[in-house]
Amino acid sequence: MSVYPTKTSILKTFSGADRERAKVMAANKVRFSTPKEKGLAESVRVASEEQNFHLVHEFTYFLREAELDDDELEEILKEARKIVHNLTPDFVNVVEALLSLNWRKRSCKTIEAFTEFSIEILVAHNRYLPMGISKFILHWIPNDQDAADWVNGCPSNQIYCELKPIHDVINRIITAVPMAFDVIVDTISSKFPYFKKPAHVTAGYLFNLLWLLDYKPVFEEIILQLVLQKRKRS
C-alpha cells in the first residue's frame, strides 16, 4: 500500500470553505496593494481636490479587512494625525474605520498612537463625539464569556491595564470638549447592560462607572439616578 496520499485525498482535505477563504485572501492581497501604496493622506487629498472618493473607499475597506501589525497600524495613525483637520464629516466612514481598529491588545506605542489620534479627531471635529465616545464605552462591557476576568466585580490585572487608556482618553476628552459631558450621559445610559446579562457583565460596567467618578465626580448624581432607574426596571 502506498504511504503517499492520493490526489483525491489531498483535494478532499482542502474543503470548499478553505478554497473560498484562499480566494478571498488572494483577492484582498491584490486589492490592498493600492491603499498601501497611496496611503490615507493621498486618498483624502484626491477626494478633497478632485471629488473622487474611490481611493478613500478602498482605504476604508483596507482598514476594516486587513490584518495590520503594530508597525503598520502606528504608521496609519501617525499619518491620520497629520491630516486630522482634513478628516471632515465627508470622511465619516474612514474615521469610523479608524476608530474601530483593533488596538487594545497592542504594544504601548500602538496604544498611545491610537489614543492620541482619537483625542485629536474628537476635539477637532465634535460631530464625531457620539461615535467615538460610544466606541470607547463599549469597552466597559465585559463579554459574556469573560467571568474569569471579573472576579467579585473587579477586573484582572490584564483587563485593568487594557481599560486604563480608555478612561484616560475619556478624561481628556471631557476636559477638552465640555459638550462631551452630555454625550457621555446619553451613552452610559444607552449602553447599560440588559438586566438578563450575566452578573459579571453588569458588575464590570458598574466598576467602570465608578472609575469614571474617580476622575469626574460631576457625574455622581446622574450615575446614581441611572443605576437606581435600571435596578427598578430589572
Strand residue content = under 5%
- Main sheet summary: 2 strands, antiparallel
* Overall form: globular
Based on helices, strands and strand pairing, what is the structural class?
Answer: mainly alpha
Q: Could you list the spans in which at least 5 consecutive residues all have pLDDT below 50?
A: none
How many beta-strand segments? Answer: 2
Would you tell me the overall average pLDDT?
A: 90
Gyration radius, rounded: 22 Å
Count the DSSP helices: 11
Major sheet: order of its strands?
Answer: 1-2
Distance between the termini: 67 Å
Percent helix, as a range, is over 70%
Tally of separate domains: 2
Instruction: Spell the H/E element sequence.
Output: HHHHHHHEEHHHH
